Amino acid sequence: MNEYALKYGTNPNQTPARIFMRDDSPLPLEILNGRPGYINFLDALNSWQLVRELKAALNLPAAASFKHVSPAGAALGLPLTDTERKVFFVDSSLSVNDSPLACAYARARGTDRLSSFGDWIALSDTCDEITAMFIKHEVSDGIIAPGYTPGALEILKSKRKGGYAVVRIDPDYEPESTETRDIFGITFEQGRNTAPVIDPAKFDSPVTVSRDIPPSARRDLTLALITLKYTQSNSVCVTKDGQTLGVGAGQQSRLHCVKLACDKADLRLLREHPKVLELEFRDDLGKPERDNAISSMLAGDFLSADEKRAFISQNAGASLGSDAFFPFPDSIERAGHSGVKFVAQPGGSIRDDLVVKACDDAGMAMVMTGRRLFHH
Predict the structure, then answer these.
(1) Do 140 and 216 share a domain, yes or no?
(2) E strand or H helix at 153, and its extent?
């Protein structure tokens, strides 16, 4: 197939709509079920690039939960603790730790479950039955992966009364080195952003007094930077334990990016507070209703300000990546309140010295990558 007709474009009035290859070659993807739309494919192709790059960089299965062309969450296939299973609403009967891929998606979905409602899923590896069973019970629009086991495909086909969108992409497909797009009848052309997000040697040369960046933080900073590479700018990402904790996307102010990402990270972390874990819900309440209830309670006075600060402080050690430099030290000061201890950013501001000093005052280790990661 070298063309796929879409019901409509971004909005119902935008017709006709299609995806196709300019050189008339076959599309590098196959629709196995459902009828994906224009925005679905934007999410699919951006999210696939993200998980593919994570897998290549960190050699672990990866998953992403995408909404409106930015990740609500991305994660690696690390085993789940009992607490994480409860926070991510993993059914006790599901042997999720037998599938690193299932763990990756549970973590990605668990970053910001409210934003992930009705998401598009990307998996770096062939979808197995355990992963499909977890997905089956989440509200989602569709999925892209390099393959599906027969059992997983049958499970996914049963979603949304048989209309769940399932896309298989050729894992060996590589696009041309130059990409084009049309805006208002004018064609733009640029080279694809194929550069690595960071030279690993940079981790050995922090610009701060604190120079210790352990392997876990290097992994989490790499996860943050690759996530930002496929997030609408301006963007900031907080990560910990192989999972995004908060993504701040599409803000005009760098500080607002940091506040958004850190506020989400705080809410994600506070879901592990003992008082939250002890909450009991009626059996007839679904996951979305429970998610909404927990988020509303955490936004209110269910936990006091002192309880929130103490719990976040006890669980410090997060990493933060930024897709461009910090123009002022206020972003670092805000990040410190969310337990951030490791930072990666391009550098290049006329106030880099003030940003470095803010990191030193907060006991953070920071690397400057020299690589801007804007994505539009």
Answers:
(1) no
(2) helix 150-157
Q: What percent of the chain has pLDDT over 90?
A: 95
Q: How far is CA 217 from CA 228, 263, 329, 359, in A?
A: 16, 20, 21, 16
Question: Does residue 328 lie in a domain region?
Answer: yes
180 part of a folded domain: no
- Which member of 46, 159, 234, 259 is catalytic? 234
pLDDT of residue 1: 74
Give me the catalytic one of 13, 59, 161, 376: 376
Q: Is residue 109 part of a domain?
A: yes
Total structural domains in the chain? Answer: 2
Same domain, residue pair 148 and 295: no
pTM summary value: 0.96
User: Can you tell me the mean pLDDT for 196-208?
Assistant: 95
- Residue 256 annotated to the active site: no
**Is 68 one of the annotated active-site residues of the chain?**
yes
Buried/exposed code over 312-332 (b: 16+ C-beta within 10 A; e: otherwise): beeeeebbbbbbbbbbebbbb
- Residue of 67, 159, 240, 375 with catalytic role: 67
CATH number of the domain that residue 112 is part of: 3.40.140.20
pLDDT tens profile 38-95: 999 999 999 999 999 999 999 999 999 999 999 999 999 999 999 999 999 998 889 9
Domain that holds residue 357: 197-368
Q: Is position 137 annotated as part of the catalytic site?
A: no
